[in-house]
Amino acid sequence: MFADRAKIYVKSGKGGDGHVSFRREKYVPNGGPDGGDGGNGGNVYFEVDEGLNTLTDFRHIRKYCAGNGENGGKRNCAGKSGEDIIIKVPEGTVIKEAESGQVITDMSGENRRFLLLSGGKGGNGNQHYATSTMQAPRYAQPGQEAQELELLLELKVIADVGLVGFPNVGKSTFLSKVTNARPKIANYHFTTLNPNLGVVDLEDAKGFIIADIPGLIEGASEGVGLGHEFLRHIERTKLIVHIVDAASTEGRDPIEDIYAINRELEAYNAEIAKRPQIIAANKIDMIYTEDDPVAKIKAEFEPKGIPVYAISAISGQGLRELLYDINNQLEKLDSKPVIFEQEFFPEYHFNTESDPFTVIYNEEEEAYVVEGPRIEKMLSYTNLESEKGFKFFQDFLKDNGILEQLESLGISEGDTVRMYGLSFDYYK
Fold first, then answer.
1. Alpha helix segments (H runs only) across 276-372
2. Burial group, residue 338, by CB count within 10 angstroms (0-12, 13-18, 19+)
3. 3 pLDDT band (50/70/90 cuts)?
4. SS3 content of the chain, % helix, strand, coil (to 5)
């Protein structure tokens, strides 16, 4: 079975403790402090491996821990830092925080390596705490604790076009005909158990990547059959191509099939159902009736703005026209790949709760000023230009009591709030 989902536990390394010791040398009876610093704990990284195409490895190993930092030693000897752990995943893997289901990162596009958890910082040895009044400090700083998370990994294939259709409508045959993919083809339901990717090369055109999403059945959006396992792979596609059996070789109604699949897409993710669609009426070489079923399909869907092409994946009839129309439609769409935005921020989750901040009114600037380490960290990893990033920013202000403090200072609508060079107008 194709493995495209896994649940794992990851943990960074704990920082080593700082050491308490004093110089003991001949003729130096009262030597100063020489306790060394603890080593830093190892980090947890995720990295794209071009040689992987499933998450199968994570079914056997579910726990991943970086090394702890060593404690400091005497004679100013620093502890050794813990080893980092690098977890290899296939391109297209979306990493989520398991409990909330929120996206931490999407290992796609330019994101080839991602620091997920930082190791604990090593503690300072007692040498750092010597002062003119305290020349023999008998304390050192403990190392910072490790960070740990339970993660949900989901592989969502990266393709421009997603082929959808009920089993046995000819999707695998179509893919093998127009791309370099070589899917297994057989005449029984759920032949395709994993998404097949292929590249379509066209003369005088850019070409595109196409994915055969395994055959759907009614109730797929509710998890019937292998519905959820397959539907997630269509989330990145920009254009949907319905393959239908125009000849009704299995007694199915092609028009009802299209409506049924669209209902499943709508139920799973309404945004997917809104994407551009093209209908490929396949198996026209097997139509023996006087009535033209393709004409009925065109009459039903072309008034809705969905083009219909009559094709035969076996003979190749109509494939050229269909492929060039797909390419033309893709050129009108955003060329950037579909990337899932970050929703869960480990840095904020672990590191900012105890960091201070201040909220004041600056009379000279006639502005409310919010600053402090907690604010600076949050702004460093928040993309305020994205809708989700700005919502996270607003939630942060509310959850940390910043909005409440601004209101207690008498802020009014339209007043200016400044945070590290960024200025905002306040609206309730």
1. 293-301, 319-332, 346-351
2. middle
3. low
4. 25, 20, 50
User: Is-contact 210 198, C-beta < 8 A?
Assistant: yes
pLDDT band for position 42 (50/70/90)?
A: very high
SS3 217: coil
Query: What residues have CB less than 8 Å from 367, skipping those under 6 apart?
Result: 361, 415, 416, 417, 418, 423
Going by C-alpha positions, the residue among 356, 316, 358, 342 that lies closest to residue 173 is 316
Give the residue carrying structure tokens 């306790």: 35
Q: How far apart are CA 376 and CA 299, in angstroms?
A: 59
Conformational region of residue 29, where left means phi above 0, alpha means psi within -120 to 50, and beta covers everything else: alpha
H helix or E strand, kind and range, residue 208 = strand 208-212
The 8-class DSSP code of residue 91 comes to T
**Cα–Cα distance between 85 and 13 in angstroms, integer?**
9
Which amino acid makes up residue 385? E
Record the tokens describing residue 345, joined without a space: 């921020």
DSSP-assigned letters across all residues of 281-301: EE-GGG--SSS-HHHHHHHHH
Question: Is residue 246 within 8 Å of residue 289, measured between CB atoms?
Answer: no
The whole-angstrom separation of Cα 176 and Cα 290 is: 30
Q: What is the pTM of this model?
A: 0.66
DSSP 150-162: EEEEEE----SEE
**Residue 44 in contact with residue 59, Cβ under 8 Å?**
no
Task: Say if CB 235 and CB 162 are below 8 A apart.
Answer: no
Least confident stretch, 218-227, 279-288, 327-336: 218-227
Residue 38 sits at the vertex; the CA angle it makes with 34 and 42, to the nearest 5 degrees, is 160
